[in-house]
């Protein structure tokens, strides 16, 4: 699939958010692999300090530097960065105030923790600033270092405030380097080269948070990306059987005969009754998921399968392939 066949041609910053427990970091990693396919170079950035990326790719904890963590299909490369707020603030002071030594002194005194505690908006400015710098960074020949940057961002409940840097900066500075830096960051975040993707499960609370997040972010002018349904379980029954299971009208004799045909003669009737109960529970869950999925009208939407064997590197590549097949990369 060529770049022009994707839904995100021209997008260079992919921000991935989602309610806790939806697999946000896993999806961000899979998206980075999908975007890197075919020889691209992609940076995957973590901003919450959990070292989730290192765990997914089974590598040692990431330092505050960009390191290659995976090779994508077709020879592409995925680099990863776990942003350390303290190091990023020192870098920020050096870049805008030429105060690298002062920044290290402030670290020893604990002033950085104090500053980011009393002015939490500054922390978000630093984190988003580092990511936007990675998007803009070029080699000496003028070529962009990375073809795309994927940010494993804060959860849905905090994503609007986190990305709306201009409002946060306005409370810190009206003019000067801090304000200019905030404007530069928002120039990237509000541009067509950014897309914010929401990860959800087909459950009521994650879906509602996704819908609320889409609404809130739309108000800020930050470009919306996709909704990514994670861990979707396929239905194991036909529509007719689902309806019968929901109504408690499955044919127990038919199930019993099927079990006997499979060699389970002993206790076949007992097992059939147990299976009928489980089928009813499965039908109820399937109906719930279909109802929640119908609420997700935002497009594009990508559906990722539930991996019964658990999540490992092979699983990441499987999810990346599913994203590519659906046009995400």
Name its key features.
eight-stranded mixed sheet, alpha/beta, 329 residues, Rossmann fold
Describe this protein's structure:
The structure is a single chain. The chain folds into 2 domains: 3-233 and 306-325, P-loop containing nucleotide triphosphate hydrolases (Rossmann fold); 239-285, no CATH class. 52% of the residues lie in helices and 15% in strands. The protein has helices at 24-36, 52-57, 85-97, 100-109, 111-118, 120-136, 156-163, 165-170, 177-189, 204-220, 239-247, 252-261, 268-295, 313-325; strands at residues 13-18, 41-46, 67-71, 77-82, 148-152, 194-200, 224-232, 301-305. The protein has an 8-stranded mixed beta sheet, with helices on both faces. Helix 10 (204-220) links the parallel strand 6 (194-200) and strand 7. The model has no long low-confidence stretch (mean pLDDT 88).
Instruction: Name the CATH superfamily classification of the largest domain.
Output: P-loop containing nucleotide triphosphate hydrolases
Given as residue ranges, the uncertain stretches (5+ residues, pLDDT < 50) are none
Radius of gyration (Å): 24 Å
List the secondary-structure elements in sequence, H or E: EHEHEEHHHHEHHHEHEHHHEH
The residue fraction in helices comes out at 40-55%
Strand order of the largest sheet: 3-4-2-5-1-6-7-8
> What is the CATH first-level class name of the largest domain?
Alpha Beta
- Give the structural class: alpha/beta
Total individual domains: 2
Cα-to-Cα separation, first versus last residue: 8 Å
- So, CATH architecture of the largest domain? 3-Layer(aba) Sandwich
Average pLDDT number: 88
Residue share in β-strands: 5-15%
The description of the largest β-sheet is:
8 strands, mixed
Shape assignment? elongated
Question: What is the fold named in CATH at topology level of the largest domain?
Answer: Rossmann fold
The number of E-state strands comes to 8
Protein name: ArsA-related P-loop ATPase
InterPro entries: ArsA/GET3_ATPase-like, ATPase_ArsA/GET3, P-loop_NTPase
Organism: Actinocorallia longicatena
Domain ArsA/GET3 Anion-transporting ATPase-like: 13-172
